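quick q for whoever's on today - can somebody do inverse folding on this one?? i tried earlier but teh output was garbage lol. tokens:
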């Protein structure tokens, strides 16, 4: 689904980002006006995680809010780690780093996470969360490759996987320290 001209609508950008369309990521990277859209994608994805986690059984409104906040913090940690790893540890010679460009692209890489809301359906919560996590990782790889002007997809994979693992450790740590007690 390659796009060629003009500016796509928000919905088209969501679909294109989820479809791993590099042209959509290039468009979002160049469009300073897409920052609010990228923030909306991240927020929708985070809230979807909180709502979808209800499928694990009887989650209270406070737990939904907590899970949504942890999802948002995990994304922020992933974004920060990706920037630091991609720009400082593993840049290519042509890598130019504009924080806004990177945040817009990786914000849209959260588009598959919106589907986590379907985790609310009994019996599919864990598969929905697993599939969307891998899908978001794939989207992040495309986003990072485009935003950091990498010629190597392998380098984008290394940056994203390393950032993803470290962000996951942070999210689990937050959950263990501040999360609800399981009895």
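ok took a stab at it. sequence:
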């Amino acid at each position: 689904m390659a796009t060629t001209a003009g500016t796509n609508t928000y919905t088209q950008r969501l679909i294109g980002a989820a479809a791993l369309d590099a042209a959509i990521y290039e468009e979002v990277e160049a469009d300073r006006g897409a920052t609010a859209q990228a923030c909306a994608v991240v927020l929708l994805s985070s809230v979807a995680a909180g709502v979808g986690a209800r499928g694990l059984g009887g989650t209270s409104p406070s737990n939904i809010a907590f899970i949504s906040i942890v999802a948002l913090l995990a994304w922020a940690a992933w974004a920060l780690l990706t920037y630091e790893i991609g720009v400082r540890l593993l840049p290519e010679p042509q890598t130019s780093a504009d924080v806004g460009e990177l945040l817009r692209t990786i914000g849209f890489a959260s588009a598959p996470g919106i589907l986590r809301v379907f985790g609310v359906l009994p019996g599919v919560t864990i598969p929905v969360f697993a599939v969307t996590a891998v899908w978001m990782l794939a989207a992040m790889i495309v986003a990072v490759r485009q935003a950091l002007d990498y010629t190597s997809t392998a380098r984008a994979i290394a940056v994203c996987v390393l950032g993803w693992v470290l962000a996951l450790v942070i999210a689990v740590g937050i959950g263990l320290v501040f999360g609800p007690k399981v009895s």
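fwiw The chain has one domain: 10-177. also The chain has a mean pLDDT of 90. so keep that in mind when u check it
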